[in-house]
Automatic annotation (TrEMBL):
<keyword id="KW-0812">Transmembrane</keyword>
<keyword id="KW-1133">Transmembrane helix</keyword>
<feature type="transmembrane region" description="Helical">
    <location>
        <begin position="275"/>
        <end position="297"/>
    </location>
</feature>
<feature type="transmembrane region" description="Helical">
    <location>
        <begin position="371"/>
        <end position="391"/>
    </location>
</feature>
<feature type="transmembrane region" description="Helical">
    <location>
        <begin position="325"/>
        <end position="350"/>
    </location>
</feature>
<feature type="transmembrane region" description="Helical">
    <location>
        <begin position="464"/>
        <end position="486"/>
    </location>
</feature>
<feature type="transmembrane region" description="Helical">
    <location>
        <begin position="191"/>
        <end position="213"/>
    </location>
</feature>
<feature type="transmembrane region" description="Helical">
    <location>
        <begin position="397"/>
        <end position="420"/>
    </location>
</feature>
<keyword id="KW-0813">Transport</keyword>
<protein>
    <submittedName>
        <fullName>Amino acid permease</fullName>
    </submittedName>
</protein>
<dbReference type="InterPro" id="IPR002293">
    <property type="entry name" value="AA/rel_permease1"/>
</dbReference>
<dbReference type="Pfam" id="PF13520">
    <property type="entry name" value="AA_permease_2"/>
</dbReference>
<feature type="transmembrane region" description="Helical">
    <location>
        <begin position="440"/>
        <end position="458"/>
    </location>
</feature>
<feature type="transmembrane region" description="Helical">
    <location>
        <begin position="161"/>
        <end position="179"/>
    </location>
</feature>
<feature type="transmembrane region" description="Helical">
    <location>
        <begin position="79"/>
        <end position="100"/>
    </location>
</feature>
<feature type="transmembrane region" description="Helical">
    <location>
        <begin position="47"/>
        <end position="67"/>
    </location>
</feature>
<feature type="region of interest" description="Disordered">
    <location>
        <begin position="1"/>
        <end position="37"/>
    </location>
</feature>
Length: 522
């Protein structure tokens, strides 16, 4: 494979990229050389695509990372906020699935906005998506270190140790994601199986122990716990609203399947099913898990004060041996989920760099000829993790969780608005996902939901630092966008033709050839 660089030429196309189509529709008469284009390989089957989306959501991971925060702000009764988050996020997933059923390109919302609105709007979608994914990778690694790995190794709570372990985890994940897409798919599929098994075992084991010993308390399901003394519990930005963070943090990332659309087999069918199916499955499994976990709390105050409350509940009911076994499985689920997010993030950077619209595009658009993976784009995520671990003050996990939830909320809101603007332009694929007459009501409800989520996320007092981080990223994006408009404006004036047909479907404008297939030209 030749060296794939995204430097802008006089024609506006990255070197080695497909020839551009200008706004007037004129095309370079020279057919592009498919072998010279950055290529990804279709190796992910239907279950693997679902596994990737489900692993990104990762119920067990999300609960482990945020259950303690929920106990401290809303109390055990806060688990019922999960239901509202599940309904709202399913509405958003239905809108996202409608896009995925029509455009199957790496970059998801970036590609959708670029091709259905214009490349300038698409760029902001891509920028938001990249940083949301990058922060999510680091969040999962830090949560794995502090909530699973350190209790498993018998280490006491220590912020510095957690940060060091976070970086070690990121390096190992990056090495595996770079090594092979197939290996990555196998690990994430195994992680999903382990996670589902752990949830099932925990639910059954805890219910059996509670039934045999009577050592469970139904009153926990309506208990406010330590938050009973909070005078602002029901206020805007108060404890109850803060408790919603668990569901809002966990039930995101269902769109990650669309980020790997160019590596999925039959993507127009498998990707939308994975998006909707994963969020519904995660919502149901998560609610059952939370109810049983909360019933099993022996001492609400003691568990709330524990640095790893889920591990404390398991230890209290099942003993230290089962705690280590199950927490070990959870650690593996954390690891697999982190790999999913890292792969999706690297593909987002790759997709933008392939179009010459990402910093260091020449480097970030390179695909290794042996592994067929974007190495530099993957390493970039590790570098971001290092910067965050060095720069974030206080409890890194809390800051990462809030910031990592605010970014997807902004992005999902933008996706819903985009869909409302372009829905009449979308072609219906035979047999593709379609909401029919429910399309407009579902989209409007999704928009209302996202607005509520943004209010919930920015009003708590501990949202200040994460909100400033997000604003800083948006400002940095605006500066880079202005630089592109001044010095690289051509990258926004062209779209690149050439994509291999997918399962007999008509070619879609704007993607590199896949699996070595020749890129068709008109």
């Amino acid at each position: 494979m030749t060296d794939h660089r995204a430097a802008t030429t006089t024609s506006g196309a990255p070197n080695g990229a497909p020839k551009p189509t200008t706004k007037s529709g004129a095309k370079n008469p020279t057919p592009p050389d498919a072998a010279a284009q950055p290529q990804l390989k279709r190796t992910l089957g239907g279950f693997q695509v679902f596994a990737i989306s489900f692993a990104f959501i990762s119920v067990a991971v999300g609960v482990f990372a945020t259950y303690g925060e929920m106990l401290q702000t809303a109390g055990p009764v806060g688990i019922w906020l999960w239901v509202f988050a599940a309904i709202g996020q399913t509405l958003v997933a239905l809108v996202v699935a409608q896009f995925a059923a029509r455009i199957a390109l790496s970059g998801s919302s970036y590609q959708w906005a670029s091709r259905l609105a214009n490349p300038k709007i698409g760029w902001f979608f891509g920028w938001l998506s990249f940083w949301y994914l990058a922060i999510a990778v680091v969040t999962m690694a830090n949560a794995m270190a502090s909530q699973a790995l350190m209790p498993l190794l018998g280490l006491s709570a220590d912020e510095e140790v957690a940060r060091i372990l976070t970086l070690v985890i990121l390096v190992v994940q990056a090495a595996l994601v770079i090594a092979s897409t197939r290996l990555f798919g196998m690990i994430t599929s195994a992680a999903v199986a382990v996670e589902l098994g752990i949830i099932a075992v925990l639910v059954v084991a805890l219910l059996v122990v509670i039934a045999l010993t009577g050592d469970g308390d139904v009153a926990n399901l309506t208990d406010r716990g330590v938050s009973i003394t909070d005078p602002n519990y029901f206020a805007i930005g108060g404890g109850l609203m803060a408790g919603a963070l668990m569901g809002l943090t966990t039930l995101v990332g269902f769109d990650s399947a669309a980020n790997l659309a160019e590596e999925a087999k039959n993507p127009y069918r498998n990707v939308p099913r994975a998006i909707v199916g994963s969020v519904v499955a995660a919502s149901v499994a998560g609610l059952i898990f939370l109810i049983v976990l909360t019933l099993a709390i022996r001492d609400v105050d003691a568990v709330t004060a524990d640095p790893s409350p889920v591990a404390a509940i398991i230890r209290g009911q099942l003993g230290p041996v089962w705690e280590r076994i199950l927490v070990g499985g959870i650690a593996f689920a954390f690891f697999g989920a982190g790999m999913v997010v890292m792969a999706a993030c690297s593909r987002q950077a790759f997709a933008m760099a392939r179009d010459g619209r990402f910093p260091a595009a020449r480097l970030m658009s390179r695909v290794n000829p042996r592994t067929r993976t974007p190495i530099a784009a993957t390493i970039l995520i590790v570098v971001i993790g290092i910067v965050l671990m060095l720069a974030l003050p206080g409890d890194a996990l809390v800051q990462l969780i809030v910031g990592g939830t605010l970014l997807p909320a902004l992005m999902y809101g933008a996706i819903v608005v985009l869909y409302l603007a372009v829905r009449t332009k979308l072609e219906r694929r035979p047999g593709g996902f379609n909401l029919g007459r429910f399309e407009l009501p579902v989209t409007l409800l999704a928009l209302v939901w996202v607005a509520v989520v943004l209010v919930v996320l920015v009003t708590p007092s501990d949202a200040l630092v994460p909100s400033l981080v997000v604003l800083g990223l948006l400002f940095a994006g605006a500066v880079y966008f202005a630089w592109l408009m001044i010095f690289r404006r051509a990258v926004f004036e062209t779209e690149f033709d050439g994509v291999a047909p997918v399962d007999g479907a008509a070619p879609v404008v704007g993607a590199a050839a896949i699996d070595g297939a020749a890129a068709p030209v008109d």
